[in-house]
Amino acid sequence: MDHRGKVITRFTFDEVIVPAKPGAVSAANINKPLHMLVSKGRAGWTVQFDELSKLMLRMELADGTVGLGEFYRDANLERVRQIAGGLLGQSLLDLPLQALPIPLCREYDGFECAIWDAFAKSADVPLHALLGGAVRDKVYIGGWSSHRGAEEMGQVARKFQEQGYDSIKIKSDLEDDVVGICAEIARCAPGIKVMIDPNQRWENVAATKLRLRGLEAVGNCVVLEDPIPRWMWQDYVELRRMTSIPIVLHISLPYVEMGQRPHDAINAIQHNSVDGFNFNAGLAKYRQLDAIASTANLFSWHGSEADLGILEAMYVHQAAAAQSCVWPSDIVGPIIRSSDLLVESLRFEPPFVHLPMGPGLGVELSLDAVEKHRIAQHIVA
Q1: Backbone angle region of 149, left / alpha / beta, with phi > 0 → left and psi within -120 to 50 → alpha
Q2: Tell me, what CATH number does 94's domain have?
Q3: Nearest residue to 250 via CA among 233, 275, 225
Q4: Which of 196, 202, 241, 250 is nearest to 220 (CA)?
Q5: Is the CA virtual torsion 30, 35, 36, 42 positive or negative?
Q6: pLDDT tens-digit profile of 151-194?
Q7: Same-domain status, 92 and 157
């Protein structure tokens, strides 16, 4: 490939706010924000994720190739501008894909997505080829719900089942009657598997034990993710010993500010603390995490931040190329968001989403949809 044609010439960042569908996140009488990071000076857990903006990236090369990227919610614009300025004028072919010259930060993955997309397009190969190739042509996915009462959750589970889903992931804290919720799901949607994510908010072993006995009796909980704080390795071991429900650790590398790193997976395995993982990360780091899990013969699924179409396309390529990615993944944008900002949406046939075809990500950003949701545009050229 011609180095001159692969020089990065322009970055266009469209800042958008895409709201959730009515009722998709919050129940009529329950509104518990799920955004864990501090935002705009407010304490964590005080902002619902769909209130926060996202950046959609179009990175242009000298030969006209456009690499697409999407940043996680609430990106740091000043940092984004500085990183873009440092990449401007560099040849795509001089950038090491496994370790880009970008500081370790939450904004890394948005640039990485665009760079890998442009590289794959230039090589006329699908993105998953850069990850070693797909081991499946469709990715197993589940339904999703935030906090709801038992009766409402049962109806939500039934609707997912009618659409073809065979699992639902739910949020839970100490205020939720999680055993009653799972019992209602079993009544309304027999056969639906429940994945429970307390986001570490069951606090300790004692509180978790009270819930585990009831959940085992109901019988439809198949995974418990992050029930207690992540640092309590020995308590995770105790929970594994007392229950047949798999205990899973969520390793979310976008939470770099919270100290999450790939070596968390190694630590969990060394401590014998988990039965598997929920992974979400950028392309190179996700490949590392999958290698750790698959080498240890543990299962995983792909997590998300309830994202838009560009990141979700990236997730599908990652999950399709990951040997450990066996459990239903959190690729839930169409369930939650009012738009994915794509010209043609990913093909969802629950309980699967199909791998996009074509070079790179295999999807196209809809500029009309972007304009409809845009609140600002930022250009570095």
Answers
A1: beta
A2: 3.30.390.10
A3: 225
A4: 196
A5: negative
A6: 999 999 999 999 999 999 999 999 999 999 999 999 999 999 99
A7: no
Question: What ranges in the chain are assigned the alpha helix state H?
Answer: 77-87, 108-123, 150-163, 178-188, 205-218, 233-242, 263-270, 283-295, 309-320, 333-336, 367-373
Q: Domain containing 211 — which CATH number?
A: 3.20.20.120
Please tell me the total number of residues recorded for the chain in this structure. Answer: 381
Max CA pair span of the chain: 65
Q: Are strands 8-16 and 374-380 parallel, antiparallel or unpaired?
A: antiparallel
Q: Which domain holds residue 197?
A: 138-354
For the residues of 65-124, what is the DSSP string, one character each? -EEEEEPPSS--HHHHHHHHHHHTT-BGGGS-TTS-SS-SSTTHHHHHHHHHHHHHHHHT
pLDDT of residue 303: 96
Mean pLDDT of the chain: 94
SS3 283: helix
What amino acid occupies position 81?
A: R
Q: pLDDT band at 293, cuts 50/70/90?
A: very high
Query: Looking at the predicted structure, is the pLDDT value of residue 84 above 90?
Result: yes
Is residue 27 pLDDT above 90, yes or no?
A: no
Q: What does the alpha-carbon distance between residue 44 and residue 67 come to, in Å, rounded to a whole number?
A: 33
| Same-domain status, 168 and 304 | yes
pLDDT at position 4: 81
Give the number of domains in the chain: 2
Residue 30 lies in a domain: no
- pTM more than 0.85: yes
Cis before 190? omega within 30 = no
- In this structure, the answer to whether residues 170 and 304 fall within a common structural domain is yes
